Amino acid sequence: MRLKLALALALLIPLFPARAQETGRAFTPADWYKVTTLSSPALSPDGKMVAFTVTTVNEKENKRHSEVWLVSASGGEPYRVTAPGTESSSPRWSHDGKILFFTSRRPGGEGATWALRMDRPGEAVQIENYPTGSTPRDHRFAIWTAPAEQDDDEGGEKAQDPYARMQPMARPPHGAITKPLDPARFDGRHIVDLGYKRNGPGFVPNPREARKWRPAQLWMQAFGDTVKKQITDTPYSHRNAVVSPDGKWIAFIADAQLRPDSVVWAERDSIAKLPYDPERDEAPRNDSDIYVISIDGGEPRKVAELMGNERSLAWSPNGRQLSFISDGGVRTGQDRLYVIDVQGGEPKNILGDWQYEPGWDYEWISNNELVMTVAIGGRDAIVRVTTGGRIQEVIGGRRRFFGVSYDKDHKKVAFVASSINRPTELFIADINGRNERRLTGFNDALNAEVAWPNAERFTYESVGGREIEAWLMYPHGYEAGKKYPLVLYIHGGPHSRYGENWFDEFHNIAGAGMWVLFTNPRGSSGYGADFTYSTRAEWGGDDMKDILKAVDIVAERPDVDETRMGVTGGSYGGFMTAWITTKTDRFKAAQVDRMISNWWSWYGSSDAQGLTEFEFFGKPWDNPMVYDTLSPIRYADRVVTPTLIVQSEEDHRTPMTDAEQWFTALKKRGVPVEFVRYPRSNHDLSRTGEPWLLVDRLGRLRQWFTHWLMPEEPATVAAEP
Asked: Using 50, 70 and 90 to split pLDDT, how confident is the model at 27?
């Protein structure tokens, strides 16, 4: 019988014991420099050692630094195995555990694959010709995909930096509310005047160079050899190559040409499936096939002809079956785990109608059972699933996973995880979930110094009976009987999710003494396909009602000051934040990040037109009413909320023009507004941007909300370390 995995709070076991009262000082933006991030765990085949990547921040040099570390699976002190002056990451073991491979970039050079013998002393050696990240199988050879080699005729001079003539601002503009945490580290532009474009360039050129497409072929190179061998030569691209257990065969996914009956998208039940129409759809869905080819080369043999986006191909232990994850060719469908006989036949969906989202990390335990990570709402879990469809959760808790690895016999699992009030650390457990223990404590010193507030998880019923999951994080220094301001966070996507993981932005605002409310409204991932795609052509409708219903609920608490509330979000969250300020004046401050204000101009300047072609049922001229009525700029005359606009100058997902339009509209309206532009930054500034700029952004968000929601406290005080 299929095990039902409920979202009930009673089933969520805390990763760390919750403290009745958090002690320690408040988190500040500068504390971000002190957080250590773990990733890429690799459990040795014998289950005795775990290799992993440790990333720290060099504040002085304004960069991140990654190294590969080792720790015994039985406990003990972790130790570094790569040179401290190099950038190293992504460790992987050889099949016999005698060699540890990793990616490393030496000063002045590009990334390459390196090998370190673990069975005898010695220095790591570079493996010539291996592409970055390729891992030899059984320390004999590596398999990868890359276009066939040809003469490089794509030379040319490097484009001139359009911002080279721009001078950093030594001081904030007169009357500005937000300020750089360190003027020497902020070289962007802080704008409060409409004449700002006279001082610098307008449009930002796309730094990505257009290159002629060439299909990716299979390549192989023996370990210890410098000669690589091309295995395939076909007109279609190959990916996800995996070697059979006996080392004789390679299975891979090939993206072939679309057949006339390809399904591009599937609408809700009321709308029929549409075939591929070249006049309407320029970017159709993948049409993938699975092939098997001998390790010695030859003609590939087709195993399955598939529709949809396939990934995560894997062999069963006996080499008779292949598994993969796919949406089944239906864009609005749920990703499923499929199994197919290597000799051919119809793929079998072994997850049935299970509504949670398979992850990337899964492996075969036996010939009839697999283990995999899944997203269950705002949390992650590891489950065991049989080819007959039985599903059992073995490792869960209120946490998220950021890398999982298994030993050769699948008796143990190592994983990196974090919870709402603890940054990432490395853990190990038996495959059945027993004997779990933490192996590292890289953030223990910071945890002892800083108080990480807890968050209350709650669910509520919204429009149409939808159950929505939400969290309310306590303000630092919380005292019963006092009222505190609140900031609402709206995630991007919209097909993403908030949840049970440590997030710097939440602690940044909570550290300033404010509640932080975050939700997963309809449109979020992790709750099934119907929930995820229920907002098509209706952004800002029921999803907004879901969000505001959570605000209504928490505003009834006696310790929440509903007269002092702010709202913020990035990407889809930036759109929704602007949208909400056109619908209500209940929020006293807003911050929009990576925003969309005008869907017409966004479509003409973004690198992601396919998003709205799918979500809004066509291009702007196909469905002009949707593009028009869902543009916040159309209702800018209703906005009264003071707004801070943050934008990256090299963001091609949500280009600068939308932020400029919103700034101009609010400025003309007389609404208090500031506009901060960050150079050398793209859509991922808040996650992977330059440390100085990322921390500066955190500081400005904190200053903005402190100014408008906590006027009795100077904004400059809240942002100081």
From this structure: very high
